Amino acid sequence: MRQKHCAWEKEVLQSLAAEKETAELQEHLAQCPLCQESVFLYRWMNRFQSVSTEEKMMGKKLPTAEFLWEKAFSPRIPDKELITKALRPLTIYRFLASAAAVIVLFILIFSNLPQIQSFFKTSPVVDMVSSSWSLLKKAFPFLFLPMVFGFVTLVIFTIITSFNPEKFKT
Amino acid sequence: MNDFTRKTWKESFKGFYQKYSRPLWFFIFKTCGNENMTDDIFQESFYRYLKAEPIKLNEHQQKAYLFKIAYRLVIDHIRKIKVEQKNLSEALLKNGLGYEKSLEPEITLALDMEQTFQLLKPKERTLLWLAYVEGYSHQEIAAITNSREKALKVRLFRLRKKFAGILHQKGYHREVKN
Predict the structure, then answer these.
(1) Average pLDDT score over residue span B100-120
(2) How many domains does chain B have?
(3) How many CB atoms lie within 10 A of CB B33?
(4) pLDDT tens digits along B6-48
(5) Same domain, A145 and A108
(6) Would the pLDDT of B88 be above 60?
(7) Which chain B residue shows the shortest CA-CA distance from A63?
(8) Cα distance from A156 to chain B (closest Cα, Å)?
């Protein structure tokens, strides 16, 4: 079986790294092809490292230790602008839902309370809207239920989109 | 961790960073071959290292732990972008790995050595780098690369043969020995 590992290899490499080659190790090195190969690779790799480090690291700026430390341990302050930007789709829908909820609530109350209807009938515009709504109601009596359902949905949606957890508060 | 311990650790971290930041950056760069990716992985490695708070480990173990994090991140990145990596490696080999083309012998040598090293697979480059540049033992390399020591010894033996063959073909045997 071919030998794959030499017991001296570690010592040989350590002595190379420390630049302290003893006569015993040199003697072994002269006889051991495995260690010779290791030494050859060691020298090549370290030459490669020093040659390319000089070239590549020249002018290369690494982040400071402080920066990395802060990155890891500083409490993250959320960026207000980013939060606004991220929440914009929700904000728009929140506004639309609130507006729709108010309108629907108004229509529901208005259409079901005759006293209010008579109060608003003093205005010709409201009267016109009221008449149109009454016509619609007569033509489509099933409108009331979906309207209530829609209103409840909109209220729930408004509550959900108004949810503002602690982590977003600055 | 209390404030005092953290403050002490912060001071020792500065020294640790000063000592190992460049070797780590270079280790990542030599394995993945892409400078931007290296910068990202470098920062992420230190971030994870700090978050793990390995203060109970000694300096050598901490370094090994840091390299282990970096190695895993590199392998994950390479897996994710295997196809692009292949194209990138080809492009880098073709265009000289970002080095300015120059007639200066040192740079030509660096370029040639880099191209030779890039003939190996990323995992093979990692093993050689850890064994011959960072000076890790087989046991430590096995821990860093999450492999069995016996299998690693065999792999390293084959790899050494393979790379020594490549180097001999390229005529490096004379230059390095001299």
Answers:
(1) 69
(2) 1
(3) 22
(4) 778 888 899 999 989 988 998 888 888 778 888 999 999 999 9
(5) yes
(6) no
(7) B43
(8) 40
What is the number of structural domains in chain A?
2
Identify the CA nearest to B161 among candidates B115, B127, B136, B112: B127
Contact between A69 and B10 using a beta-carbon 8 Å cutoff: yes
**Gap between the Cα atoms of A128 and A117, Å rounded:** 11
Range of the domain at B133: 3-177
Interchain proximity A57–B26, CB inside 8 Å: yes
Neighbours of B16 (CB within 10 A): 18
Residues in chain A closer than 8 A to B21 (CB atoms) = 62, 65
Q: Is residue A84 domain-shared with residue A51, that is, in the same domain?
A: no
Chain B: residue whose CA lies nearest to A53: B26
Same domain for A114 and A161:
yes
The length of chain A, given as a count of residues: 170
| Joined tokens for residue A121 | 């009938």
Q: What is the distance between the alpha carbons of residues B67 and B42, in angstroms, rounded to a whole number?
A: 10
Contact pairs from chain A to chain B, CB under 8 Å: 96
* One domain, residues A33 and A93: no
Only one residue has tokens 């500083």, namely A74
Among A residues 54-83, those touching chain B with beta carbons less than 8 Å apart: 54-57, 60, 62-63, 65-66, 68-69, 71-73
Instruction: Inspect the interface and report whether the beta carbons of A62 and B109 lie closer than 8 Å.
Output: no
The Cα of A43 is separated from the nearest Cα of chain B by a number of Å equal to 6
Question: Could you say which of B17, B50, B132 has the minimum Cβ distance to residue A45?
Answer: B132
Task: State the ipTM, two decimals.
Answer: 0.72
User: How do residues A109-152 score in pLDDT, each as one tens digit?
Assistant: 777 776 766 666 677 777 777 777 778 777 777 777 777 788 78
Residues A53 and A124 in one domain: no
Does A53 reside within a domain? Answer: yes
- Contact partners, residue B157, CB within 8 Å, separation at least 6: A4, A5
Contact across the interface for B43 and A42, Cβ inside 8 Å: no
User: Exposure of A131 by Cβ count < 10 A (0-12 exposed, 13-18 middle, 19+ buried)?
Assistant: exposed
Domain containing A42 equals 9-57
Task: Return the residue matching tokens 């880098």.
Answer: B92
Contacts of B4 by beta carbon, 8 Å cutoff, 6+ apart: none
